[in-house]
Amino acid sequence: MSQLDETHDPQARSWLESTRGIDCEFPIQNLPFAVFRCDATEELRGGVAIGDQIIDLAALAKLGLFQGLAADGIRAGAQSSLNLLMQLGPEVWNAVRRALFQGLLEGSSLQAALRSCLVPQSGAQYSLPAQIGDYTDFYTSIHHATAVGRMMRPDSPLLPNYSWLPIGYHGRSSSIGVSGQAFHRPRGQRLPPGAAQPVVGPSMRLDYELELGVFVGGGNPRGTPIPMADAEAHIFGLCLLNDWSARDLQAWEYQPLGPFLAKNFATTISPWIVTLQALAPFRVAFIRPDGAFAPLPYLNSPRNQEAGAIDIRLDASIQSAAMRERREPPHRLSSTTFRHAYWTIAQLVTHHTVNGCDLHSGDLLGTGTQSGPTPAEAGSLLELSAGGKQPIQISRDESRTFLEDGDTVIFRGWCERTGAARIGFGDMQGRVLPAIDPPG
Ligand code: MN
Questions:
Q1: Rounded CA gap, 82 and 59, in Å?
Q2: 273 DSSP assignment
Q3: Cα(394) to centroid(ligand 1), Å
Q4: Checking DSSP bridges between strand 408-415 and strand 181-184, what pairing results, if any?
Q5: Residue 119's beta-bridge partner residues?
Q6: What three-state secondary structure class fits 430?
Q7: 67-122: per-residue pLDDT in tens?
Q8: Cα-to-centroid distance, 243 and ligand 1 (Å)
Q9: 360 belongs to the catalytic site
Q10: Beta bridge pairs of residue 37
Q11: 331-337 and 313-319 as β-strands: parallel, antiparallel, unpaired?
Q12: Rounded distance from Cα 93 to ligand 1 centre (Å)
């Protein structure tokens, strides 16, 4: 269970100058993990963000500055994927966090040694932070589920099961990429309005979904569910996630078994994983809309009610090819916060394993599109354009209902509140390329 300690002290300052700006996403209180290299000739290894730098965990491991659990964690984090570090559990993650915090603190005797392990973030190449064995995407925003449900079923937008269990589907890990991912517009089957037969071709209704990703830390043996009281100990941290979606393919294929090819051509995540421990100051009460059912006992706990939700601010922006050429900044489409979610991350883990399903370190859970209570807080173009009926002005001469070739979608995530240091997730972006030529 993540708890406040000295590493969250908002007064704490690092000796590293670049942590001092008010807009710094990676102050000493954050310390997120990624896998990186400086150029293609180098080995991938784990790193921790501080200011505009990365602490190279492979270099740090060689120095042997730390002992015990912190040393174990740093050695594990020096590998080309973070799966082993994720497997080691919260005691080790927190030992690494405390050790790095102490070393980075103003006046630390380790300053010179740690400085020798820094490499600049500018120019770093990132890879996926873990080998993602399995990927499950949920549907935790009741505002998103209601808005989308209303388009299909105006009289009963939410199906009865939504109130009782976290709806999800098994996605595909093969097409998950890291920020900077560019992918071809998917082709597939869609049923044009009023047509008797489907056609195959490039998706005409390509969309993004503003989500968070949840990296599983230690897994569970098959047949052994994870109770709510232990669920958060199985979560390493959170990243930004864009579940790119082809709405026309989805509308035609989704019944009766759920999303399939509309979702598995590309999913983009941010390189940095912000640990649950770093998010501790931003925990908030789990509050459902008036009149909602209380969760069944296996999905409920006092801790979940008191602080199961997390206030993570999210926003989505778009930059077209023309805007890029004219050097115009991205246009912000919407913003919301994860605190509105109808299910917490602990509930996702517990429900996923209630049947005995085994999770493994490095598995990824998507939270589902995060939309706030008002239409302007929607986390997809499907909602913002009212199903494609209301174009959105994105620059002086361009509007969008769905994504066009060349569009870049940018997500940002951050946490802030009085009495805590502001922390960020870093930018995440992905770009749509023209459809690939049809097979044959
Ligand atoms: Mn999704």
A1: 16
A2: B
A3: 23
A4: unpaired
A5: 54
A6: strand
A7: 999 999 999 999 999 999 999 999 999 999 999 999 999 999 999 999 999 999 99
A8: 5
A9: no
A10: 125
A11: antiparallel
A12: 28
Q: Which of 144, 234, 331, 351 is catalytic?
A: 144
Residue-wise pLDDT for 360-382, tens only, equals 999 999 999 999 999 999 999 99
Amino acid letter for position 224:
T
For 432, residues 6+ apart whose C-beta sits below 8 A from its C-beta are: 182, 183, 185, 206, 403, 404, 405, 406, 407, 408, 409
> What's the CATH number for 6-127?
2.30.30.230
Domain ranges of the chain: 6-127, 135-433
Distance 184 CA to ligand 1 centre (A): 19
Q: How would DSSP label each residue in 99-136?
A: HHHHHHBTT-TTHHHHHTTEEESTT-EEE-SS----EE
Return the bridge partners of 34, or none: 47
Q: Which of 3, 32, 10 is nearest to 414 (CA)?
A: 32
pTM beyond 0.90: the answer is: yes
Q: What's the CA-to-centroid distance between 169 and ligand 1, angstroms?
A: 9
Residue 165's contacts (CB-CB under 8 Å, 6 or more residues apart) are 299, 351
Residues facing residue 27 across a β-bridge: none
Cα–ligand 1 centroid distance for 79 (angstroms): 30
Q: Phi, psi (5° rounding) for residue 181?
A: -60, 135
3-class DSSP assignment, residue 59? helix
187 Cβ neighbours under 8 A, 6+ residues apart: 200, 201, 202, 203, 435, 436, 438
φ, ψ of residue 174 in degrees (nearest 5): -65, -30
Please compute the mean of the pLDDT values over residues 237-258 and round it to a whole number.
96
Regarding the domain with residue range 135-433, which homologous superfamily does it belong to in the CATH classification? Fumarylacetoacetase-like, C-terminal domain (3.90.850.10)
Q: Judge contact between 144 and 51, C-beta under 8 A.
A: no
Burial class of residue 439 in the structure, from the number of CB atoms within 10 Å of its CB (0-12 exposed, 13-18 middle, 19+ buried): exposed
